[in-house]
Amino acid sequence: MRRLFALLLALCCLSALLTPVLATTADTAGDTASADNAAGEGDAAGDGEAAGEDTDAAGETAGGETEGEDAETEPETAPVQDVLSETAYKSVTVSCTVDEKGRAYVSQTLELSIVGALQEISFTFPESAKSPKVEGYKTKSETKNGVRVLTVSNEAGFSGVVTFQLSYNQSGLVTAGEASQILTLPLLSPQAYPIAALSFAVTLPAEFASSPSFSSGYYQDVIEDLMTVTSSGGVVTGLTSTPLQDNDTLTMSLTLPEGYFSGSFGSGAGSIVLLVLAGLCTALALFYWFRTLRNKTLRVSARSLPPDGVNPGDVPFLLAGGDADFNMLVSYWASLGYLSFFINQAGHVILRRRMEMGNERRAFERKLFLLLFGDESYCDGASLHYKKVGSKAMAVIPRYWARRIYQKRSGSPALARLLCCMACAFSTMLAMDALAPETLHALYMIAALVAGFAFCYFLQHACSAYYLNNWLFTGIGLGCGFLMLLVGVLGGAGLLTVITGGAAVFIGWQTAHGGQRRPEGDDIVAQTLGFRRFLLNATDHHAQQMLRRDPQYYYKMLPYAEAMGQGRRFTGLFHGVRLEPCPWYEAAAGTPTTPAAFYDHFCETLAILNVSIRK
Predict the structure, then answer these.
(1) What angle do CA 557, 563, 569 make, to 5 degrees?
(2) Phi-psi map region of 492: left, alpha, beta (phi>0 left; psi -120 to 50 alpha)
(3) Residue 196 in 3-state DSSP?
(4) Alpha-helical segments (H) within 511-552
(5) What share of the chain in percent tops pLDDT 90?
(6) 377-397 per-position pLDDT tens digit
(7) For residues 49-64, average pLDDT
(8) H helix intervals, 267-383
(9) Residue 169's domain spans which residues?
């Protein structure tokens, strides 16, 4: 019931989380189209200006005079030689679209004139660039001197004039000023060759009144006197009038009114706090596991017999730290001859006592058996009395085994998992801080906190569900892990999400069988895992061979197989075999004697008993 409640809560938070995530995806698609349009506009503007300049130059040559007004309005551009004397970029065209959250989507067209031949060509991107690529080429990626470098190669060599298309996106470009927001946009990263001409077009989400400023790595702010810049309708276009040196850079800065970009662009203290908290919780969880929960590696080998001294009701706890299964304990008692199941015509499950339980069984089993029947010879499986006895059994079995298999100094697996859940919650909050809109920002952050915690909870319990063959909860856990990673990547916290989520999976896997064990505890858990391995790998031939040795083999092993989630597969091993009548299971309408029919009937009985326990 607690897991169901947590699942419903996670789904509610997920609906809130996916709103900005889906909006981001839609914005990305729209922004890509806008970037392409902006590139076309920027190219058209640059071509138009170049054509106008050529026309003016021709007019000056023919007429022998130049009008003063035209000289002031038309920028002088450096002549681009058709054949450069050294390897250089003839032209670089930059198209950039900035969305309302301050993310930039950049596309660059570089026309490289090569003197001789080059086997490799390297292109640089900002270090924080995401998804950098050179269209049409396989690249080798590395980081040098604070920039991303993608290298393309050609065994035949590059020669002549070659055009390359580069693209990437970048976030974290907006900072908060005094009642303002400052956009700092790198337009050009240091390239290996000089650039004869650079043009750019930057499309912003809305119109603005301020003027952009520019800075070059070589010319510093003097570059503003060496380029022509126009701003109109939220689009900034520019064209250099002088060549740029190799390894030169160009950065645009623009001061905009507060609220121009949506989202939080403060000093970053909140993001730093979330980052530190996530890292601290992860480190504490791993340290706590190492000091108080670490166990030796188990040596597991398949065994055809159940673990020594373990009944089917104990298996979920020993195998995956799950709740004890009282119904399987009762079924085990029945297989030993202490009681029997009777299903009447109305479908009611009646438990009949066949003999008293003596000292051959554990003390708590004798107490439970006495509580179940008292002075009566039968018990209604759908009664409140059955539920009360079942609740006591599910409480006493974990305590019984905890005293026998765990070290006294063992830590708490729940505490280690809690620390991991907190780390994932903080990392999800950090990602949502970049995704959530400014309106209701606090509400989205709270939803991210709860969802991150729930995602991690189900992700960790997927390890336990796997050991019990509960594929529903295993799938839910993996799905939650994927959603957590998706939010992290879209929010720019992908690496942190991988670290916190990976630590959560590791802790969940290492603590699936409980805390720090004694040597005898290692032996019991290894035997349980070995029997599970046997059930997973058993063949029809082996199972039917065991049945020939013991005609009651199927009925004796079925409670163990069902407790491990292997009941249906175990039954399938006996396909086509007719069983002897089960001595402890009787139905008024007739007891099935084929394995599949008996198993289906037995599952219906267990379903009735489960309803009784959980109602």
Answers:
(1) 65
(2) left
(3) coil
(4) 519-537, 540-549
(5) 67
(6) 999 998 999 999 999 999 999
(7) 36
(8) 269-292, 315-320, 326-336, 363-373
(9) 75-257
